Write the structure tokens for this entry.
Amino acid sequence: MKNLRLKAARAGKDYSQQQLADLCGVSRQTINAIEKGDYNPTINLCIAICKALDKTLDELFWEE
Amino acid sequence: MKNLRLKAARAGKDYSQQQLADLCGVSRQTINAIEKGDYNPTINLCIAICKALDKTLDELFWEE
DNA sequence: TCTTTATGTAAAAAATACTTGACAAATTAT
DNA sequence: ATAATTTGTCAAGTATTTTTTACATAAAGA
């Protein structure tokens, strides 16, 4: 399932996928795939994404 | 760096590494390595661990 | 229009998470 | 004491994340 919270948070910062990828030190395709939701990133990457977007893990990756 | 919050949460449930590993569907060595801190688990595994221990991602894996 | 930027997607290769099996040291229980 | 459980660690293999290269479409600007 898509990660719309991530997409929204990125939009809130007005970052492109490429910009966010650069901030996190990964490729654009990796960010794209995570938003698309068909995969399972590592926790370190999730943390890097959260910090780039001023969010926490629970805000972007936790689901009840 | 060691993940002492994870170790403490596991202790709080009185689970062995093996029991927690079984609940999460991974090997004991994987849990051991995560507590030891010398690696980078996937977010799905982190979520499985959190649910097994009644914690959230922020409580076990977020650092300011 | 024409150009540039942003996004979606795919396949092969590289990097690394995770497993399995095994052994020793440390705890805990009997 | 000693037996059983738990933990720490290692090495080799498998599975999956991530990179790289590439192409196509959509949106935005000049």
User: Anything to note?
Assistant: Chain A touches chain B at residues 40-44, 46-47, 50, 56-58, 61-63 (CB under 8 Å). The CA atoms of residues 47 and 56 of chain A lie 8 Å apart. The radius of gyration of chain A is 10 Å.
